[in-house]
Every structure is written in C-alpha cells, then in structure tokens.
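Thread title: Can someone regenerate the structure for this chain?

I was given the following input by a collaborator and told the matching structure tokens would be attached. They weren't. Posting the sequence so someone can regenerate them.
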Amino acid sequence: MIKELAINRVRLPLVSITLMVLFVVGGSVMLLVKWPAGPGSLDWGVLILCYLGYVFLMAASLLYVKTNK
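Best answer:
Regenerated them for you:
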C-alpha cells in the first residue's frame, strides 16, 4: 500500500506557482513605490496592477491550458 502511494505522486505546477509569486511580489512592490497621479487621480502602479494584471492572468491561463502545467 505504501509503495502504491509513492508511485502516484502528484507533481507541483511549478510554472503556475512561479507566475503567482511573480504577480504577488511584483504587485506588492508596484503598490509600495511612490508614483505620480495618473488618470482618475489613481497612482500608475494601481492602474498597471489592475489593468495589466488581467492581461497577465489571461496569459497565465492560456499557458496553463496549452502546456497543462
């Protein structure tokens, strides 16, 4: 029984974990930097994180679907 469990190990999705860490760390740094006011009196870091975050999320999703990682 123990040998059966050792054979069927689940692999971690390293690409997905790397992209999540990159988004969290990059987003945190982006929000901590003092940016000038942009459109709508929002900081550029907030705008970049909010709008380009969607592009990043879609690209990561497509990568996951294409590579199954």
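The chain has one domain: 12-67.
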